[in-house]
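Exercise 3.2. Students should predict the tertiary structure of the chain below and write it as structure tokens, then compare their answer with the key that follows.

Predict this chain's 3D structure.
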Amino acid sequence: MTTRTGTDEVNQGDGGNAVNGGDGGDGGNAVNGGNTGARRPDRAHRVRRARRAGRAGQYAALLAYLAFLCFPFLWLVSTAFKPPRELGSLHPTWIPEDPTLANFRQAFDEQPLLQAAANSLLIAVSAAVVAVVIATPMAYVMARHRTRLAKAATGWVVVSQAFPFVLLIIPLFLILKNLQLINTLTGLVMVYVVWSLPFALWMLTGYVRAVPAELEEAAAVDGAGRARTLVSVTAPLLAPGIVATAMFAFITAWNEFFFALVLLKTPEKQTLPVVLTHFIGAEGVADLGPLAAAAFLATLPSLVIFAVIQKRITGGMLAGAVKH
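Answer key:
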């Protein structure tokens, strides 16, 4: 027997109850509810599976990029500890079979690495400090006073990074020659400051804009003057940006080769990247073992500095700045 109620049809028998799973007019609702309940878990499962696949893809890409970055350094370390017999092998290995320190001893005996490292350290630290000292107040002005002049200066900063070294070396050489700063560490520091200052200014401007202006307004309400506000409130919050900018300027000066090669002539004043080229003979044949050992030593300062201050760079300084 079949009963019609509105638009729903319900079978009054065992077969109808089994099919529709309900009594009277509720059978259609029971069927629809069951389909919806089955559809929702499937959709949620697909979403979770897609998210896991996307996360796995991101991790795989990150690992591939990390391997791409680490491969040259790991191969450099391996080469630095290999004896000449393994360096000339047709089947090189990752791990030296007979590791030795002879390459390091030979590198120090052949070239003045300590003097070159001292010159590079002095130049890099000086350039980083001067660049940060100049860029910090300039970045504050550009971030807090967004005039047309500040926007034009920001645009010029970005455009200046596109200039190649070759376009700058001749004017810089003539200027330093007139100032009698050729073949001096002071002249090279000035060049590095000028070269790193635009990017340092651009970096610090972004950090200053991230500091809430309400903190400075609150300090002014409490009676602090402009100088006291900058020193006591804004400067501590800019510490991560200042450290990151100083590290950028340091690494730029530490690794730079072209300006140092052109401007420094005396061997005792040359920097470490220039001295590394001395391990390559007149015919272009490199003394691979000592060169790898010296290059490995040249990369250590950057790695150590980054390992020491990486928490300072990534850690936020705004926590606890807002008064409760």
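Discussion points: The CA atoms of residues 128 and 247 lie 7 Å apart. Strands lie at 2-5, 8-11.
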